[in-house]
Amino acid sequence: MFESAELGHSIEKTVYDQEVPALREALLDAQYDLASARKVPVVILIAGVDGAGKSATVNTLNEWMDPRHILTHGLSDPSDEELERPHMWRFWRQLPPKGKLGIFDGSWYSWAILEAAHGRIKGARLDQSLEQIRRFEQMLIDEGALVLKFWMHLSKQAQKKRLKKLEGDPLTRWRVTDRDWKHFEMYDTFRDVAERALRNTSTAEAPWIVVEAADPRYQKLTVGRTLLERLRARIDEPAPRAPVVHAPAPAPSIDGVNILHSLDLTRKVEKAEYEKELEKWQGRLNLLTRHKAFKDHNVVLVFEGADAAGKGGSIRRITQAIDARLCEITPIAAPTEEERAQPYLWRFWRRLPRKGRFAIFDRSWYGRVLVERVEGFCTEADWMRAYGEICDFEDQMARSGTIVAKFWLAISKEEQLRRFNERQESKFKRFKITDEDWRNREKWDAYEAAICDMLDRTSTEIAPWTLVESEDKFYGRLKILRTLCARVEAAL
């Protein structure tokens, strides 16, 4: 894959000086068209061997274009804050919104390549990491992003020459470190790992572009021309048609079994027993958060359910039991303008907690396969692929030490009507009922079908759904507390 990038391509200075002004003008025009349309985010990865001029290329792009519409990220070792979240958290937070370019000097490939080159992960683990990256990039593309990946390549001889030249100049000596020379000694190993990584992740939608970096002028012109070509092609293409779904929608139940209908909604707890049990389980939860091992974990709680099913009351019984400084509650409503400019999972990734803390979501990322599906806010292709994207998201959380607990609060249609009427008649509960709640009620059957599909496709061993019979609020709250305590205890 790298052979064609070792052919000795070069550009004369006079040719370079002649071509750059027109290229810069065209890049600026494309950048402003991109910014005014605000329909496409552009993700640019600048990766490659040490000493291959990656940072210089990034600086050149910022010089040639308007840096106000460019978000540049120079990524090195992760910070303590980043190490307390899933590995991809730091990259999700830095994704560019629609209309802007995000340039990554270093990327989500760096860890996998370094770990494999040093022998800390073997073939199968490397392949798993690369497959996770491939799915991540495919999700960005499906969400409308333009992903450009440049690998700056130097032959072993050219890398040695470049490092010696930088080290020999007092003005650039600081650019060369002991780590660079150590990696040079491992050149052949790094080349093998990098070639494997590039081959496994070069796709039709996001191919790797290998750029010979021995001549900086050739390198910069190649990157600039390629960026212009891809930008202009994307901006000028006609509005995309709705994607064709090649997989059938979830099959309806042929035996008539509905998991929600199988719940026993008559379960009840008397008030006296409830108050006694509430004190017991809240106390146990509090002690678990003070366990010495809890600092190595965090907790993400998802509360979904029918309108008026008691999500808010259940959340309050949890927050009463734990230190308020350890907990953040995020109520999820329609996305803001800032959130609509990003992939739909972005607003949830950025809310993931540090170690030793709770993040509670009152409604969640499951809106993509529930309200967005039923109300037609996304295409069938969008919600069909979301099942896999959501499972990936939760898998990454669990692998990083997050305890993921998901609760579906179930009530009958008749009980919901009773609670709606009660809320409308109560002066201090009127804010809890909206016109949208009544509209959603009219689509009860459609929502029920979507819920059953969601439970079937996203209840996994590491992040199972707990179905909570909430016709009696006392029973439902106790079941949630017991389940949560059991999940935390199992993790500790």
UniProtKB/TrEMBL annotation:
GO molecular function, one term: polyphosphate:AMP phosphotransferase activity
InterPro entries: P-loop_NTPase, PolyP_AMP_Tfrase, PPK2-related
Superkingdom in the source lineage: Bacteria
Residue intervals of the Polyphosphate kinase-2-related domain: 11-233, 269-490
SUPFAM superfamilies xref list: P-loop containing nucleoside triphosphate hydrolases (SSF52540)
A single BP term in Gene Ontology: polyphosphate metabolic process
NCBIfam families: poly_P_AMP_trns
Protein name: Polyphosphate:AMP phosphotransferase
Organism encoding this protein: Mesoterricola silvestris
Gene that encodes the chain: ppk-2
